[in-house]
Design brief:
heterodimer; A: alpha+beta; Alpha-Beta Plaits; 2 domains; 9-stranded mixed beta sheet; two-stranded antiparallel ribbon; 6 helices; 35% strand; elongated; B: 625 residues; alpha/beta; Rossmann fold; Transcription Regulator spoIIAA; 6-stranded mixed beta sheet
């Protein structure tokens, strides 16, 4: 088995998505990249069986309307002419708004992109119809953030579809999942949140908690994922591109 | 790169289903600088994005128009009901996908009319764009509204809504029309003067330049041009040699999954088989083939330019393409190397096609399709469908031996001269196919139970067919016939292997009215639209009661269009169109149908239909004068 696996070249691609293409869903992105591989003539590995498909996996599905400067997908290649050539060829056939930012080789023991996800960074623009925009933009937002993270627990309630289609409300403490939460004087929020299969905090959950804490409604205008991170052996948080 | 700003806000886009329908920017969509162009065209398929983007015709014209340096062609589709509501509430004007500019600012708004049930959506697009419904109510600066596609072979029910109809294949005359438009603009001629000059171009029909008079019984007395220089007859446009026209080798690749999510190779136009119910078979005559060399060259380029994982061959009857063997041999070779699937719709089931299918697709998933259209041989002779029970059973047996065990069978109910026995034969034919399965395969070789799906649609007489004189069944007859089919199927031996589906009867009635109606129908369409009818081709949206109310309130005697057999010398609303095939020939075919006399296909023997006048395709070789 090991011999067999070594025949493939594992590559992690970092990509960005900006502008109108942010309205694509995750499956559309998957289909998009499948076509990109064919157009760029990439010698990608296919699965075996009756319906061969490209071996491709994303770190973290992008939500509709989310932009990114650092998302990732892993692909297996049968052959290639170096990472630089790979990135050049891919970017040549890319659409307006989507670009490959970098590529790195993975060794055979490396976790796949999805399993490697530990945290994700976000940059979020908010507004409120109950507050003056100027108020938000001064230091108010930063104070709200400080107040929130100072609390002993941060409870959000989530509607869940339980058995027999009954809606249940589940409460959850998300405090341990907020690694970082701050705002700048332009009214932009920055977050570093726990992601991955063990605990996954969505940025909108944090906005909800903020809204609840101040008793005023905050609305998300734009979300940008700045980067996705894994955890190094020493416990530190490192970008998946490292 | 030109920065694209979207017409819809983030809030709106996030509130509707599939926002990617409205953002443009797909691979191979064309952006141009406004300063470089003289004419802006926006092409509309009046249904949702996923359906419109699956249509080859739009792709052909988009590619052709954008190949002209002075023209920029963009696209627009019907906003789905969710966005439709938001746009009305917020008074947001309809916009084109590429530039996101208002449709009203364009020089031309083109509609492709592929099925009659899209007519309220034409009004929706005009309404949301802020353009008057009727040609005569439009302002000087409004776009010229032009329509094309199969529905324009009887454009009369929607004639009031269009400034121009293009009758025939779009490749031939648009350049001439654009030159005329630019010239008129320069000379500051009026809209009316431009339209009058446009009527001189072959294939172009300007409905506002004709007067229609009616007989007391509601039929047409005469159709007269209002000026001497406007032609009385409009002749269909035809591409003589398909290898000479441009083909869309850089088709737009949608981000979201379109209904047809694949590359398309159009192998031929037209059909040699004169099925008497089929309009496409007549209006696209004569049959013209593309060369294998061109098609293979196109396939290479398409693969490179799109990245699609599937390639489909398109035509009315792909089995009739004379060089299908060499074409497929080369395509299979090419596509296997690139792991691209080939799909072959409209292929007759025989040894050859089964062999091909074995080579190209996953046997276990696919089902086989037969379209006998009628259950009895007598009825198949009436409709001139040259398919016998033996053909079907032979094909099915070969398929069963090859491992298939799913069969789909398509039929029509309400065909002219149909009797109860013919309907019962549908069940018998399904049963025979099931028996053939158990007959040809011993128990141990069977791959589960045979699964047969029988579907029936209701027959709608269409213009330019042998059945254009025929009386259509009414709602109750349709429902009774579907019930009889169901009952017959449930009484045959293998009924448990047969599942039966039938098409909605109400839409068939309205489609029949649009198909053979005249200009009086237009007001009913406006009434229905203004009372909420839209996306009528979508069963969930179709409101039959409102349509009946619309005909009633606008005094449209709809029964007169569908529920009577028409006289041999009656003037039809579409008689001013010349498709090559003559009314005399169709009448002869109507009489042959009554007698159950079969007419040979174009390749076996020319029957002198009249398409020879185009002197292209199959005609020069086989024509017998």
């Amino acid at each position: 088995m090991a011999d067999n696996e070594q025949k493939y070249i594992r590559v992690r691609l970092k990509f960005s998505r900006k502008g109108p293409v942010k309205y694509l869903g995750h499956l559309d992105m998957l289909r998009y990249f499948q076509k990109v591989m064919l157009r760029a003539n990439i010698d990608i590995r296919y699965s075996e069986g009756f319906n061969p498909h490209q071996i491709m996996s994303f770190a973290y599905p992008l939500g509709v309307s989310m932009e990114t400067t650092g998302d990732y997908l892993d692909i297996d290649l049968v052959s290639y002419d170096g990472l630089e050539d790979l990135v050049t060829r891919l970017n040549k056939v890319m659409n307006e708004g989507i670009a490959i930012e970098s590529a790195k080789l993975l060794d055979e023991k490396a976790l796949n992109a999805m399993a490697a996800v530990y945290a994700a960074g976000y940059k979020i623009t908010v507004s409120s119809n109950e507050m003056d925009q100027a108020e938000l933009e001064k230091d108010k937002l930063e104070l709200m953030c400080q107040e929130l993270v100072a609390k002993p627990e941060i409870i959000i309630s989530k509607k869940k579809c339980g058995k027999k289609k009954k809606e249940e409300v589940v409460e959850k403490d998300i405090k341990e999942g907020i690694f970082e939460l701050k705002a700048d004087s332009d009214g932009i929020l920055y977050m570093l949140l726990k992601s991955g299969s063990a605990l996954n905090i969505k940025p909108v959950s944090v906005i909800e908690a903020l809204s609840e804490n101040i008793g005023k409604n905050l609305k998300v205008e734009a979300i940008l994922r700045t980067d996705i991170y894994g955890q190094a052996e020493d416990g530190s948080i490192v970008s998946l591109s490292q | 790169m030109i920065e694209r700003k979207l017409a819809l806000s983030n809030d709106i886009l996030m509130s509707v289903e599939k926002p990617a329908r409205y953002i443009g920017g797909e691979l191979n969509s064309v952006m141009k600088a406004k300063s470089d162009i003289r004419l802006r065209f926006v092409m509309c398929f009046p249904d949702i994005y996923e359906i419109g983007m699956s249509h080859l015709g739009i792709s052909i014209l988009y590619n052709l128009f954008n190949s002209y340096d002075d023209v920029w062609c963009e696209r627009v589709f019907s906003p789905w009901t969710d966005l439709d509501k938001v746009m009305r509430e917020n008074k947001i004007p309809l916009f084109a996908l590429e530039s996101q500019d208002k449709v009203k600012e364009f020089d031309f708004l083109g509609f492709t009319l592929q099925y009659e049930m899209c007519y309220t959506n034409v009004l929706q697009v005009l309404d949301l764009a802020g353009i008057a419904y009727k040609s005569t109510d439009r302002e000087e600066d409004d776009p010229i509204v032009i329509g094309g596609g199969p529905c324009v072979y009887n454009p009369e029910p929607i004639a009031d809504f269009f400034d121009i109809f293009y009758i025939g294949e779009g490749e031939t005359k648009y350049r001439e029309l654009f030159d005329l438009y630019e010239d008129c603009k320069e000379k500051k001629l009026s809209r009316h003067e431009f339209l009058r000059l446009a009527s001189h171009i072959g294939g172009l029909y300007v409905p506002s330049l004709y007067n229609i008079s009616y007989n007391e019984d509601g039929t047409i007395k005469a159709m007269e041009p209002i000026y001497d220089d406007v032609p009385k007859v409009v002749k269909k446009e035809v591409v003589k040699d398909l290898d000479d026209v441009s083909y869309p080798l850089k088709p737009i690749v949608p981000f979201i999954r379109a209904i047809q999510d694949r590359m398309v190779l159009e192998v031929q136009r037209g059909c040699i088989r004169g099925c008497r119910f089929c309009q496409a078979g007549q209006i696209y005559k004569p049959i013209r083939e593309r060369s294998v060399e061109k098609l293979l060259e196109y396939a290479d380029t398409l693969i490179e330019n799109t990245g699609y994982e599937e390639l489909s061959l398109s035509s009315l009857s792909t089995s009739d393409y004379t060089r299908l063997g060499p074409l497929l041999e080369n395509l299979i070779d090419k596509c296997n190397k690139k792991k691209i699937n080939i799909s072959l719709p409209s292929l007759r089931i025989d040894a050859f096609s089964l062999d091909v299918m074995n080579k190209i697709q996953d046997v276990r998933k696919s089902s086989l399709t037969f379209a006998p259209e009628a259950g009895s041989q007598r009825m198949r002779n009436v409709i001139n469908k040259g398919l016998t029970v033996d053909n079907i059973l032979e094909g099915a047996k070969m398929a069963f031996l090859g491992g298939w065990n799913k069969v789909k069978l398509y039929f029509m109910l309400g065909l002219p001269f149909e009797e109860e026995e013919d309907i019962k034969s549908i069940a018998e034919l399904c049963n025979e196919v099931a028996l053939a399965y158990y007959d040809v395969l011993p128990k141990e070789k069977r791959n589960g139970r045979i699964s047969i799906t029988a579907s029936t649609s209701f027959f709608i007489p269409k213009p330019f067919t042998a059945f254009q004189w025929a009386k259509m069944n009414d709602m109750q007859q349709f429902i009774d016939k579907a019930e009889l089919t169901k009952k017959s199927i449930s009484s045959v031996l293998n009924q448990r292997s047969i599942s039966y589906h039938w098409h909605e009867a109400g839409t068939s009635i309205v489609e029949g009215i649009f198909a053979r109606g005249d200009r009086k129908v237009a007001d009913a369409i406006i009434y229905a639209y203004e009372h909420g009818c839209i996306f009528d081709a979508w069963t969930d949206n179709y409101n039959h009661d409102m349509w009946m109310e619309s005909f009633d309130k606008t005094d449209v005697d709809y029964k007169n269009y569908i529920f009577r057999e028409r006289g041999e010398d009656e003037i039809f609303p579409w008689d001013f169109i010349d498709i090559g095939v003559t009314k005399n020939y169709l009448l002869k075919e109507w009489n042959n149908a009554k007698e159950g006399i079969v007419t040979k296909n174009c390749r076996d023997k020319c029957s002198g239909c009249g398409a020879f006048t185009y002197k292209c395709g199959i005609c020069p070789g086989v024509h017998n004068g």
